[in-house]
Amino acid sequence: MKRKRKSRVKRALLIFICTWVVFAQSCMKFRISDSDALAQFNQKGLSPGFHYVDVGALRLHYVKSGNDSLPTLVFVHGSPGSWDAFKMYMMDTALLAHYRMISIDRPGFGYSQFGKARRLDAQAVMLNKLMEKENNHRPVHLIGHSIGGPVIVQMAQDHPEAYASLTLLSGSISPADEPREYWRYAVMYSPFRWLLPGAFRPSNDEIVYFKKELKRLDTGYAVLQLPVTFIHGEADKFVTVKNVAYGRKKLVHNTQVKEIIIPGAGHFIPWDHYGTIKQHLLSLKDHR
User: Fold this and answer.
1) Residue 254: its pLDDT value, please?
2) CA 125, CA 213: separation in Å to the nearest integer?
3) 81 vs 104: CA distance, rounded Å
4) What is the residue-wise DSSP string for 234-259?
5) Are residues 172 and 103 in contact, defined by beta-carbon separation less than 8 angstroms?
6) Do 154 and 218 touch, CB atoms closer than 8 A?
7) Backbone φ, ψ for residue 277 (5° rounding)
């Protein structure tokens, strides 16, 4: 009797695991189809462009709104995420009066070869290639949230002449202030990684990569002479506000560094403090 009971339990557990693995691959991808996004833009009388560009073996997906003759705001999302994290900015008529806006699915997310994470330096190379294609010879401002922060720093370190400013929203750039999170390594290098749902698997992989790569990024700040703004929540529990002090220290040579610390705010300031960030973005139109 006990053997039969154990056998049923094992069978049920196996069925549960197999079902979860299948389910995990199809859920929580944090992305929106182009057709659904277009319908939302159309409701506001807007017609964005949905684009792909081939960079080596990878096809990057990105969305563009606004007049191609204007300066550009480039949005780079965190982890996990996709371009539509900044959808409401790209619909904002006040911003559209001054900017063309581009929001990108980073490699491994959205519709940019979903599921396969890339290292920080490789992501920067790909995104810089995309921006070469979209060059309209007007100022380009990079805005990165969370892990998108070090991505735009790497982009600017590689091509400092290409960009007019950097804005780090809750940017995670300080190697010393990264949480250890040793469990991420155990998950990445074990079969348990297949139990992570949707975008959480490439997210875990890239975070493992990026924790090591921040030390390399640490050596390249001297080339950054452009305006840099840190906007951070004082109570951010995911990426400590200490990252701002670290950034200021690394950019001590740069006289164009600004910080906006939002009292009581957490990690999700692009959505929770839209007005503050929008006001800052509008101020960028004066940077040439």
Assistant:
1) 97
2) 14
3) 10
4) TT-SSS-THHHHHHHHHTTT-S-EEE
5) no
6) no
7) -70, -40
- Whether 12 is covered by a domain: the verdict is no
Residue 181, pLDDT score: 76
Indicate the DSSP class of residue 171: -
Has residue 84 been placed in a domain? yes
Q: How many domains does the chain have?
A: 1
Considering the domain boundaries, does residue 20 fall inside one? no
Predicted structure pTM score? 0.88
Residue-wise burial string across 13-35, b where 16 or more C-beta atoms lie within 10 A, e elsewhere: eeeeeeeeeeebeeeebbbbeee
Pairing of strands 257-262, 100-104: unpaired
Residue 95 in any domain: the answer is yes
Which range of residues forms the domain containing residue 44?
30-286
Q: What are phi and psi of 10, to 5 degrees?
A: -65, -40
- pLDDT tens, 247-277? 999 999 999 999 999 999 999 999 999 999 9
Measuring CA to CA, which residue among 184, 189, 60, 210 is closest to residue 131? 60
pLDDT higher than threshold 80 for residue 101: yes
Which strands sit side by side in the sheet containing 228-233, from one edge to the other? 49-55, 58-65, 100-104, 72-76, 140-145, 165-169, 228-233, 257-262
